[in-house]
Fold this protein.
Amino acid sequence: MQGYHVTANVGSTGRGTAIIHKLQIQFQRIECITSGRGIAAYLADTCIINIYAPSGTAKRTEGEEFFNVDVLGLLPLSPVQLIIAGDISCVLGNKDCTGQRTSSQALQRLINGLKRRRLGSEHKPIRVYSLHSNVSDTYRQDVPIGRPDTL
């Protein structure tokens, strides 16, 4: 793609993640999960993480380990603005799903830990959004209007 750079992380099983950015943006560092299921890019005081979580009830244990171990390895050690995106393959609440609910206790613990970690930070609060797909991709804000949740 002209004017853009693609940084890809493809694992041995063919699964992968990538981050696409304009050529004038120079990341300070890129971290990858060896399975290909995660990539993190650091730019000044911002960390962007793209993940592809294991899906399905048969892979529930693999999914929990993914959030407990692999994703933790991508998280920044110091407080920065954090964007986590990708195919999460589970939900945190009933309003996130249209069919059978596939939840992850490990993902919930990860998010709760990030919220606690930000309490002492001087960074501005960020809003939490979740994405789901029905007929088309849409989003909903995970908090009542006028009261943004913070991480």
User: Anything to note?
Assistant: Helices lie at 60-74, 105-118. The chain has one domain: 4-141. The radius of gyration is 16 Å.
